[in-house]
Design goal:
The complex is a heterodimer. By secondary structure, chain A is an alpha/beta fold. In chain A, the strands form two sheets. In chain A, strands 2-1-3-4-13-12-11-8-9 form a nine-stranded mixed β-sheet, sandwiched between helices. The longest helix of chain A is centred in the C-terminal third of the chain and has 17 residues. The radius of gyration of chain A is 16 Å and the shape is globular. The two termini of chain B are 34 Å apart. Chain B has an eight-stranded parallel β-barrel, surrounded by seven helices. Chain B is of the alpha/beta class. The longest helix of chain B has 12 residues. The chains are: A alpha/beta, B alpha/beta. Chains A and B meet through helix 1, strand 8, strand 9 and helix 6 of A and helix 2 and helix 3 of B.
Chain lengths: 216, 286
């Protein structure tokens, strides 16, 4: 990895393994560094917020370490931010996972559990686990390098819904119900699926992220 | 729409693959990481490692295997076998597993599933169930007098532990429902009658469990042909209604790749992720 490669902070809020994300970013030519303090996060060229664990714990942990403000600052200054899975949900106003909790409030909308019934009234299996198609739309530097639709790996019980359509740049359907699979606001781009687990489809997303960082 | 998953499974003993992958000659067929890499190239939807290491000392080897796999393969990885505590689950997730399955510990201590779901989350938590058809009902009814609410004298399938050796008296369908209520994110259901026979999945068992829970079900045991996988995944009245099919020997020993199996499943009308890689035989045979 050349020293001049962009430095990407993989935000560590104590939610477990970051190895796959770090290795997947390196594969796309990025210098990925696990980062748990606000100062080094502010110095990074870009940030990735990976997603494992519960919403409330993640918010509390980000806040306790001062990482939430560092993420907001970075996004305000136009640094590319990529949220993965829970890292998408955290950008929204609030979530009802284990009680009502406020998120970072960067994207208007909320996060709720999948309903018990699908669009036809049949029981819906939750979590939503497996490979599902995402249809992208709208304008974003990330989207220029991605196909209009592709198949990615999901594993989640809660899903985000944008309050206004402009924030949604990718949609996925489960049980006949649509949810936000990709969201964008300012320099934040986030996906509900796991690019680091989505083989060649996922690699294209991280390659697009690397290209976006380069263009900034 | 959510696609049905095809999951190759490797038995791992002290860090080595037990059932060799016979057709592979370009890779170290005994190294789980190399075999995982091969299945990644074939675009398997997930991979499962079942650690069958018996000795306590040998059990650390799985962490090294999981770490090396997570560093080189960008696909979902489930690990099970000998998982007894919340700490075991955490250790495997920290090593790089995406999901961890528990079986015997859940039977001995069902509260463990609730605790794990609360502390770690349901999405990473798989409850594995080994079950057999009850053939001697009198015998079963004696066992079913135990402490579980899931002892149904009219049960058709009984939960076993220790690789199918120890009967528990527990009705497998009721057990799956209880585990789902406790917070399991997924059920991995193995028919011990069918396991290793390549004679097709126990469709009645798979369907019985899949219809009793509102979490995904992975069918296991008996998958020997693309047609049998299709049956397990079929949502019609005769199908297994499973969301995923786990198989070992079909990929390890036969002239099939994940891609060639998926191509056949698509012909049979099962919605799977279309293979992007070549679907002709395994590379060593070309």
């Amino acid at each position: 990895m050349p020293a001049s490669s962009p430095r990407v902070a993989v935000v560590d809020y104590g939610a477990g393994n970051l190895r796959s994300v770090t290795k997947a970013l390196e594969r796309s030519g990025l210098r990925a560094e696990v980062c748990g303090d606000p100062a080094s996060l502010r110095n990074a060229d870009a940030a990735v917020l990976p997603g494992v664990g519960a919403f409330a714990n993640a918010v509390a942990s980000l806040h306790a370490k001062g990482l939430d403000d560092a993420i907001r600052d970075g996004i305000e200054r136009g640094r590319p931010y990529l949220g993965l899975c829970l890292g998408l949900q955290l950008l929204f106003d609030s979530s009802s996972e284990h009680g009502e909790n406020a998120g970072l409030g960067l994207i208007p909308g909320r996060v709720d559990r999948f309903p018990e019934r699908d669009a036809e009234g049949k029981p819906l299996r939750v979590p939503h686990i497996g490979w599902n198609e995402v249809r992208f739309s709208g304008e974003h530097p990330m989207l220029e390098a991605l196909p209009e639709r592709d198949i990615y790996y999901f594993v989640h019980s809660y899903r985000a819904k944008v309050a206004n359509a402009a924030g949604q740049v990718g949609v996925c359907e489960y049980g006949g119900l649509e949810f936000t699979a990709a969201a964008a606001e300012g320099s934040a781009f986030a996906v509900q699926f796991h690019p680091e687990k989505s083989q060649s489809s996922g690699r294209r997303v991280l390659d697009a992220f690397a290209r976006w960082i380069d263009s900034c | 729409m959510l696609l049905k998953r095809i999951i190759p499974c490797l038995d791992v003993n002290q860090g080595r693959v037990v059932k060799g992958v016979q057709y592979v000659d370009h890779v170290d067929a005994g190294d789980p990481v190399e075999v995982a890499r091969m299945y990644d190239e074939q675009e398997a939807d997930e991979i499962t490692f079942l650690d069958i290491t018996a000795s306590h000392e040998g059990r650390r080897t799985i962490f090294d295997v999981v770490e090396r796999t997570a560093e080189s393969v960008f696909m979902p990885l489930c690990v099970g076998g000998g998982v007894r505590s919340i700490q075991d689950i955490r250790d495997l997730l920290n090593a790089g597993a995406d999901k961890v399955s528990i079986m015997t510990a859940a039977v001995h201590e069902p509260e463990l599933v609730e605790e794990a779901a609360l502390k770690i989350g349901s999405a990473n938590l798989v409850v594995a169930i080994d079950a057999r058809r009850i053939d001697d009902r009198e015998d079963y009814r004696v066992r079913a007098g135990g402490r579980f609410r899931e002892n149904d004298p009219d049960a058709v399938f009984e939960v076993y532990t220790h690789g199918g050796r120890n009967p528990t008296g527990i009705d497998a369908v009721a057990w799956a429902a209880r585990m789902a209520r406790a917070g399991a994110g997924e059920i991995l259901l193995t028919s011990m009658d069918k396991d290793g026979t390549k004679s097709g999945y126990d469709l009645e068992m798979v369907r019985g469990v899949a219809d009793a829970v509102s979490i995904p079900v992975i069918a296991s045991g008996g998958g020997g042909t693309p047609e049998s996988l299709a049956e397990a995944l079929d949502d019609g009245p005769e199908g297994g209604h499973a969301q995923a099919a786990l198989a070992a020997s079909i990929f390890h020993f036969k002239e099939q790749t994940v891609g060639s199996v998926k191509a056949r499943l698509l012909e049979l009308g099962i919605p799977v992720r279309p293979p992007r890689v070549a679907v002709d035989g395994p590379r060593a045979l070309r």
